[in-house]
Amino acid sequence: MAILWTDDLNTGIDVIDKQHRRIVDYINDLELAKAKQDREAVGKVLDELVDYTLSHFAFEESLQEEAGYKYCKPHKKVHDLFVRRVNDYLERFRLGDDIVDEIHHMLTSWLINHIRRDDADYVAAVRANMIGIISEKEKNKDEGWFRRFFK
Q1: 13-143 has which CATH code?
Q2: What are the pLDDT digits (tens) for 19-61?
Q3: Does the structure show a pLDDT above 90 at 111?
């Protein structure tokens, strides 16, 4: 069953929400490839999903570190465990196992739970940091580069 994006999955951080929606699109693409019984397409979607998700995790973790989020290391461990789990599925897939239904179910439940629980926990810290950065830029926008340089 396809994942439908619902408002309760929004974190309120637009860039993160767009990335999460893209991951949902990949998961839904996986379901379509499976329905077409196209093993090559399944493999391509899995590879793209993994690449995109790894870059998303790195971005998310950098936002958390920048914001001083106190649980950024445990959050990274959750990401690392997930990556290991997905890599196990990929290995099985490459060995010829039909893992698509299994991985689709795991990805769907993991992503939704992760967004609603783990990601929701860091939102306040990251948003506060982003607001602070924007405020600082607004304050400095009226100053010329020369004055900012010597400040």
Answers
A1: 1.20.120.50
A2: 999 999 999 999 999 999 999 999 999 999 999 999 999 999 9
A3: yes
Distances (CA, A) of 35 to 44, 114, 122: 15, 26, 36
Give the residue carrying structure tokens 């020369």: 146
Quickly list H helices, the chain: 14-35, 39-67, 72-94, 100-113, 120-141, 145-149
Residue 142's pLDDT is what? 58
Beta-carbon contacts of residue 146 (< 8 Å; ≥ 6 apart):
none
Spatial distance between the Cα atoms of 94 and 46, rounded to a whole number of angstroms: 11
The token pair at 15 is: 């860039």
Query: What tokens does 133 get?
Result: 């950065």
- Contact criterion met (CB below 8 Å) for 126 and 15: no
Instruction: Tell me the C-alpha to C-alpha distance, in Å, between residue 23 and each of 10, 54, 62, 69.
Output: 13, 11, 18, 23
Mean pLDDT of the chain: 90
User: Which of 26, 2, 51, 24 lies closest to 112, judged by CA?
Assistant: 24
- List the structure tokens of 67: 């914001």
pTM: 0.85
